């Protein structure tokens, strides 16, 4: 089993920055793609950024140029650097990962519990 724990959320003013972290733990054999999703009240959960095991990245158009996703494979951790934050970035941000666990066949998908990001003046 894999556990994902997010941290780094909080309240910031428009134009401010935050860095989210997501640490994976458990009997991990390998982690494939990892991503950050967000969900605002009354809206569908949406993909914000994704990063492959080879560190190829992709971003939603709404955050491109402002957010940067990265990972540290040695630490089983993925990060999301968020700059020039806007009120519309307000949401619960969730970490997601595809992983293989020790002793099991196949790749399984895991979610973190989420961390609140609020951008308000």
Task: Walk me through this protein's architecture.
With 121 residues, the chain is mainly beta. The chain is built from no helices and eleven strands. The protein has strands at residues 2-7, 10-12, 18-26, 28-39, 46-51, 57-59, 67-72, 77-82, 91-101, 108-111, 115-119. Strands 2, 4, 5, 6, 9, 10 and 11 form a seven-stranded mixed beta sheet that branches. It has a four-stranded antiparallel beta sheet with strand order 1-3-8-7, with no helix packed on it. Strand 7 (67-72) and strand 8 form a beta hairpin. The protein is elongated and about 50 Å long.
Category from helices, strands and their pairing: mainly beta
Computed over alpha carbons, the radius of gyration is: 14 Å
Give me the number of helical elements. 0
In angstroms, what separates the terminal alpha carbons? 40 Å
Strand coverage percent: over 45%
